[in-house]
Design a protein that fits this description.
The protein is mainly β. Helices cover 1% and strands 38% of the residues. A hairpin with a 5-residue loop joins β29 and β30. The longest helix is centred in the C-terminal third of the chain and has 10 residues.
Length: 747
């Protein structure tokens, strides 16, 4: 029987060393024991000292490569148990990549590389950047390296250096030191010396009081001297001294980018000037004649155990790690190319070692907000998305029945609640508890800024009534909060009531409102009315409401006049097509749509082409009235175009046809073929003669229009009544005739 009090002196577990690690898999629970564990191998990838424990490996590779959420826990173990996680770098080759910033100076850069075994490799100037030095030193083994770069040229240059894996990807996981150079700025100090240059000296002091550059011992009387030095980004003091105390040089200090940061004369008090300045980091970190040292460590030696880095130094993210019942639970998001993970399980605090259960679960990563109260809550998410953090306020509106929020320390946020229809907005804070004097919730009118509620002055569970929109703002201090375990809480029930509506109640208007609380048709807008039928001659492309004005024929303008200016006094115009009334109107005395009320009005009427009858009159003063018909779009007025009271024939789009309908007239026309019957047009001039075209003596050129019985016909049978050709007319001929009576003769 194994229990928490067991001592394991002299006991060594089979997987006590990394070399004998036991493979485990996703979805598995493995029983193990930390009793008698040692720190065999002395591995310390995380820099915490070698730990005693037992080893396991987990293959985290996926096909295709993808991020995985891996949960590892030893909760519920017999004895207190904890573990550390590592990743193996399974690519033993790596590349040191170096780039020069000055394309004209690269041939002046040399390097000396100190290898892990102490040997050195020298690269002369001009050879280092054969092709701007990429993949120059390839196939590095695991170990510590130092590279010293020297700028043998006369201009400032800059180097960047990276270590990349054999896949060609920059991968900071294989670098334990600085993976790229720390940028500095190289400055130039120019001094116009006086005639006692030996009295002048200077130094530059950083923010910690350290002298980072200095100069003295000058001998060029009255000349100009320049000094160069490079410093990291930060704040500095340039001290300029004159040993005799009678004044010194004029001087300037300029950055590598040409910015003048100091311009002064020494010395205001005779002995000393102090000029404060600051510089930003510059990529030009290798001055002319200077050196730059780059140190790094390459992992990826032979075998799994010599290729370990701490799990979060690799391309992984530790989501959470905490203690649980006699164990530990840790969640990590592995990178898409994470290979083998090492797990070192060791005895926890207060434990001498003993049995444990190691459980592992793996699932694809789904990023999103995992807070159920958030507006962007994603029920499928298992990892919080840092690019889309939980949002608790953007979805709050009149449709939100209630909102509850457990606030944390040191929060500061605000949002606006709007009644989209305008009107009353009610925020019920029942259930809200705010730490008065320390945390503050404020609700104010969005338009005026007037404060409607302040948790420091008003009861926490107040009811706030605003109009149209309110702003809500909150701040908390760092003492206690809902998240830290107190009963502090924010609760809101939001209700909106619409404002009374006022608007146009005319359904034909563009801005028609169905059943407004207060109808005001003076607000109506009819600008969108017109003909919406594309086949009509007056189709309006911009009309959205059809006003019934579409015309498929033509337009005729009716101008109405009254000489006295008091309207037509009961007279009207009526336009008929046959017996059908097509249009009518009159000139009123005070109609709004008239050009000159009572004296002149203008109507547009839509008609089809045809011959119309216009009837005008019927008033008490018809002698005052007159009218005119004017051709409109698509129409031509034929015949009578103006007049007074009476009945007129008007051709609209076509002329009216007239003709004689007296049957005996020589110019007789069928009444169905004329618009107007006019017997005055009849012609009775007769020419006698033979009018039968089958007669022997018919002459079309004679112009005969009245038959005078003079027609003669030739007969082949001298006895036409002898139908059976027996030489006599008898009963037999009569019977033949009666048999054919009523039949049509062939033409």
């Amino acid at each position: 029987t194994v229990n928490s009090g067991c001592l394991y002196f002299g006991v060594t577990q089979a997987n006590d060393s990394c070399a004998n690690a036991v493979a485990v898999a996703c979805g598995s629970t493995t029983a193990g024991n930390t009793g008698g564990a040692t720190a065999a191998g002395g591995y310390d990838p995380c820099g915490n000292g070698a730990q005693a424990g037992v080893w396991y490996t987990l293959d985290a590779a996926t096909d295709p490569p993808s991020e995985q959420l891996i949960t590892i826990n030893t909760c519920g173990s017999t004895v207190n148990t904890e573990f550390s996680l590592f990743q193996a770098i399974d690519t033993p080759d790596a590349t040191l990549e170096v780039t020069s910033l000055d394309v004209y100076n690269w041939a002046n850069i040399s390097a000396v590389i100190t290898n892990p075994d102490g040997s050195t490799t020298s690269i002369a100037a001009g050879e280092l950047f054969g092709t701007v030095f990429e993949d120059f030193y390839y196939g590095l083994e695991g170990g510590d390296y130092t590279v010293v770069f020297t700028n043998e040229g006369s201009v400032n240059d800059g180097l960047t250096a990276s270590v990349i894996d054999s896949y060609g990807n920059v991968n900071s996981l294989i670098c334990s030191g600085e993976c790229s150079t720390a940028p500095t700025d190289c400055l130039t100090l120019s001094m116009d010396l006086d005639f006692f240059p030996g009295e002048t000296s200077w130094d530059v002091v950083d923010g910690g009081g350290n002298i980072v550059a200095s100069g003295s011992g000058y001998s060029t009387a009255g000349g100009t001297v320049t000094e160069s030095f490079c410093v990291p980004a930060g704040s500095y003091t340039l001290n300029m001294y004159d040993a005799w105390g009678d004044g010194g040089p004029d001087y300037t200090l300029t950055t590598s980018g040409g910015d003048e940061v100091v311009n002064n004369s020494c010395c205001a008090d005779g002995l000393w000037n102090a000029d404060m300045f600051s510089v930003s980091a510059s990529p030009y970190n290798l001055p002319a004649g200077g050196t730059l040292t780059q140190s790094f460590t390459i992992f990826g030696g032979t075998g799994f155990c010599s290729s370990l880095v701490c799990i979060d130094d690799a391309n992984n993210t530790v989501i959470s790690s905490e203690s649980c019942d006699n164990g530990q639970t840790t969640q990590i998001v592995t990178g898409p190319y994470t290979g083998t993970i090492g797990i070192l399980v060791s005895a926890g605090i207060g434990s001498l070692g003993g049995p444990f259960d190691l459980s592992i679960t793996c699932e694809p990563v789904v990023y999103g907000c995992m807070e159920a109260l958030a507006c962007n809550y994603n029920a499928a998410a298992n990892v919080d998305d840092p690019s889309d953090p939980c949002d608790f306020t953007s979805c709050l509106d009149c449709d939100t029945e209630s909102w509850s929020y457990c606030y944390d320390n040191n929060e500061s946020w605000g949002f606006t609640l709007t009644n989209p229809a305008g009107g009353t907005l009610i925020v019920d804070l029942a259930g809200t508890i705010i730490e008065q004097g320390w945390d503050e919730l404020v609700i104010a009118d969005a338009a005026s800024g007037d404060v409607l509620y302040n948790s420091d002055a008003d009861a926490d569970d107040s009811m706030v009534i605003g109009t149209d929109a309110v702003t809500v703002s909150f701040t908390s201090d760092g003492s206690v909060s809902c998240v830290s375990g107190s009963d502090l809480f924010i609760s809101m029930a939001i209700t909106c009531a619409p404002a009374p509506s006022t608007g146009c109640a005319d359904s034909s208007a563009c801005n028609f409102i169905t059943a407004p609380d207060f109808a005001d048709n003076t607000l109506c807008d009819f600008s969108c009315n017109g003909c919406t039928e594309p086949d009509a001659i007056n189709y309006d492309l911009f009309a959205s409401v059809d006003d019934g004005s579409c015309c498929y024929g033509a337009f005729v303008h009716v101008d109405m006049f009254d000489s006295f200016g008091d309207g037509w006094n009961g007279a009207t115009y009526e336009l008929y097509l046959g017996d059908v009334l097509m249009a009518e109107g009159f000139l009123g005395e005070n109609e709004e749509d008239q050009v000159f009320p009572g004296a002149f009005a203008h109507h547009n009427i839509c008609v089809d082409a045809g011959c119309y009858t216009l009837v005008v009159g019927g008033g008490t003063f018809d002698s005052e009235i007159s009218w005119a018909l004017i051709s409109g779009y698509g129409s031509v007025v034929n015949g009578t175009t103006e007049g007074g009271a009476g009945t007129f024939s008007v051709g609209l789009g076509t002329a009216c046809t007239e003709g004689c309908t007296v049957l005996c007239a020589t110019n007789y026309e069928d009444p169905a073929t004329v618009d107007i019957s006019d017997d005055s047009l009849c012609d009775y001039d007769l020419t006698a003669g033979c009018t039968y075209d089958t007669a022997d003596n018919y002459d079309e050129a004679s112009g005969a229009n009245y038959d005078d019985g003079s027609c003669t016909f030739s007969l082949s049978n001298p006895c036409p009544t002898d139908l059976n050709d027996d030489g006599s007319t008898t009963t037999s001929d009569l019977l033949i005739f009666l048999g054919q009576f009523g039949t049509d003769c062939p033409e």
